[in-house]
């Protein structure tokens, strides 16, 4: 029995399939060849390395850190450090004003007074040495003059030994010091206000502010500095030779 011959449509489909297979193989062989060449190239090309000949290595020593910048407080400074400075000055009785965090004239004068009492250069600048001394337990508070009895008022300004004091002319002014009062004190205060040393109204009471004004006047005019208005300080104060206070910088 004879088999049937393939249908024409079957032959057409088989022909198309053969053509497609041939086209795939034709495209596949070059791709395989290119891939093999790429693998050979990658295996033969050396891996590039960084050139470190011009690179500087820097090693940071954790034990060698830069020293902090020293803190210096002076006229014009402000902030929390100034507040702490003012608070310490108040504790030591050098500052009578308020703690406001502003380094003004009164704070500068308080720093100078502290420096004088503690053997430091009285420049009114709170640097390392001044701050270290102020924070220490050995910081000296402001010396307070001891009130004298009525029997001592016949003398001029009392001086600590071994230095002595002799009025340059017969006494014409009443001896005035902390705790005193009266018309002579009012007159003294008015003159200090006129020269710019006292910044309050004359009240006839020789208070802390008046004593500090007298100290400032004595320093400015080359007087013995003790905050006591004896013969020589008052003679200079009421003369035309009296120097006014230096201009304030706050």
Shape: rod-shaped
Number of helix segments?
7
**Largest sheet descriptor:** none
| Level-1 CATH class name of the domain at 150-237 | Mainly Alpha
CATH superfamily of the domain at 150-237: PGBD-like superfamily/PGBD
* Share of residues in strands: under 5%
CATH topology of the domain at 150-237: Muramoyl-pentapeptide Carboxypeptidase, domain 1
The proportion of residues forming helix, as a percent range, comes to 40-55%
Number of strands: 0
Distance between the termini: 132 Å
Mean pLDDT: 79
Catalogue the unreliable spans: 153-170
Helical/strand content category: mainly alpha
Order of helices and strands: HHHHHHH
Rg on CA atoms, Å? 47 Å
CATH architecture group name of the domain at 150-237: Orthogonal Bundle
Brief synopsis:
This protein is mainly alpha-helical and 250 residues long. It is 41% helix and 0% strand.
Q: How does this model look, in words?
A:
The structure is a single chain. The protein has 7 helices and no strands. By secondary structure, the protein is mainly α. Among the domains are: 56 residues, Muramoyl-pentapeptide Carboxypeptidase, domain 1 (Orthogonal Bundle); 88 residues, Muramoyl-pentapeptide Carboxypeptidase, domain 1 (Orthogonal Bundle), CATH 1.10.101.10. The chain is rod-shaped, with a radius of gyration of 47 Å.
């Amino acid at each position: 029995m004879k088999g049937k011959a393939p249908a024409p449509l079957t032959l057409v489909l088989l022909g198309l399939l053969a053509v497609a297979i041939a086209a795939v193989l034709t495209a596949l062989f070059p791709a395989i060849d290119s891939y093999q060449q790429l693998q050979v190239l990658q295996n033969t090309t050396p891996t590039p390395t960084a050139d470190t000949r011009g690179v500087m290595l820097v090693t940071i020593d954790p034990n060698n850190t830069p020293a902090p910048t020293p803190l210096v407080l002076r006229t014009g400074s402000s902030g929390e450090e100034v507040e702490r400075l003012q608070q310490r000055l108040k504790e030591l009785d050098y500052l009578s004003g308020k703690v406001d965090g502003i380094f003004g004239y009164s704070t500068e004068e308080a720093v100078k007074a502290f420096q004088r009492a503690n053997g430091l250069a009285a420049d009114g600048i709170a640097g390392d040495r001044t701050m270290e001394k102020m924070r220490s337990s050995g910081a000296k508070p402001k010396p307070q003059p001891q009130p004298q009895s009525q029997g001592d008022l016949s003398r001029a300004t009392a001086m600590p030994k071994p230095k002595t004091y002799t009025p340059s002319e017969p006494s014409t002014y009443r001896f005035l010091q902390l705790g005193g009062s009266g018309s002579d004190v009012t007159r003294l205060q008015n003159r200090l206000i006129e020269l710019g040393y006292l910044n309050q109204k004359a009240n006839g009471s020789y208070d802390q502010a008046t004593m500090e004004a007298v100290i400032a006047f004595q320093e400015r005019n080359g007087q013995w500095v003790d905050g006591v208005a004896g013969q020589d300080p008052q003679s200079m104060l009421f003369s035309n030779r009296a120097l006014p206070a230096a201009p304030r910088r706050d």
